[in-house]
Write a structure and sequence with these properties.
With about 290 residues, the chain is mainly alpha-helical. The chain has helices at about 20-40, 45-70, 80-115, 160-180, 185-215, 225-255, 265-290. The protein starts with 19 loop residues before the first helix and ends with a helix.
Length: about 290
């Protein structure tokens, strides 16, 4: 820790050099190495992936625990609070651009690439190909060379609609918990936070069931052409963000139970709430663009 007068909040607290960033990088190295080898048929990649995940979780537990301890010790002034808010805002903006790239890829494939493959210019190469999006015409695969196995598209009923209700409800319960914390009603805030966490877990369970249904009954896979790749990339990355957000909310709930946060200072809670509302908004875009259109 940086030198500071005991019991006095420093002007701007700067932590001492830490081992945690490089330790996290080591864990992520094994995650990427293992994932890359596993998907390419090397069985040992699964063990590398698991080791990397466990290592990363262990390091992050220590890192975030120290950060929470600094906050509870009164080390973070209003200036640091402003920095945290700007940092979280820019992080969420980067996530917006991340999903914008995938939505952009879906838009381009649907409105430009696939219709172009079915145009008169390519009629000599693929005379029987109809350049239509699979969700628009039953049986279409958007594969001019016919190398994609037939599959069915995923509609909005019932699981995607149920998941929409779960996420929208979780946004409401989280807001209730936030207002309860501001009103210094800690028990009420904890109760509503547990409900929010439960809704996040239910969403993940439903999405897992949806994926199993897609693979086993619809023959819809990541390899199902441009439709399958965009579907699973968008919904899969969103599901990962829901998982991260659920973990964040769980940690905030446990901190509330330990007596952390006050009605005046609780940006850790607010940052997690910002992230969760962002996840909600992204899902609404997914729900209408991927499942309905």
């Amino acid at each position: 820790m940086s030198a500071t007068t005991k019991g006095v909040t420093p002007y701007y607290y700067v932590p001492a050099p830490s081992r945690h960033p490089v330790m996290t990088a080591i864990g992520l190295f094994f995650v990427i190495l293992g994932a890359g080898q596993w998907v390419n048929g090397h069985g040992w990649g699964a063990y590398s992936l698991l080791f990397g995940l466990l290592w990363t979780v262990f390091v992050l537990r220590q890192w975030f625990g120290e950060a929470a301890g600094e906050a509870e010790a009164g080390m973070l002034s209003d200036r640091v609070d402003v920095s945290h808010r700007w940092s979280m805002a820019w992080f969420i903006f980067s996530e917006v651009m991340f999903f914008a790239a995938f939505f952009g890829a879906l838009y381009w494939a649907r409105t430009q690439s696939v219709p172009s493959l079915g145009s008169l210019e390519n009629a000599v190469l693929w005379p029987d190909f109809k350049g239509v999006w699979p969700s628009s015409v039953a049986g279409a695969t958007a594969s001019p060379a016919g190398i994609v196995e037939p599959f069915q598209t995923m509609g909005p009923w019932p699981l995607p609609t149920i998941n929409t209700g779960l996420l929208l409800t979780s946004g409401i319960t989280l807001t209730i918990a936030h207002h309860a914390l501001i009103a210094n009603q800690r028990a009420k805030a904890i109760g509503w936070m547990w409900i929010t966490v439960l809704l996040g877990v239910l969403f993940l369970f439903c999405q897992g069931y949806e994926y199993a249904h897609a693979y086993s009954e619809l023959n819809l896979k990541l390899s199902s052409g441009v439709y399958g790749s965009t579907f699973f990339m968008l919904t899969g990355f969103h599901g990962f963000h829901v998982f991260v957000g659920t973990v964040m909310l769980l940690v905030m709930t446990i901190r509330l139970m330990k007596g952390h946060f006050t009605p005046e200072r609780h940006f850790g809670f607010e940052g997690a709430a910002w992230y969760w509302h962002f996840v909600d908004v992204v899902w609404l875009g997914l729900y209408f663009i991927v499942y309905w259109m």
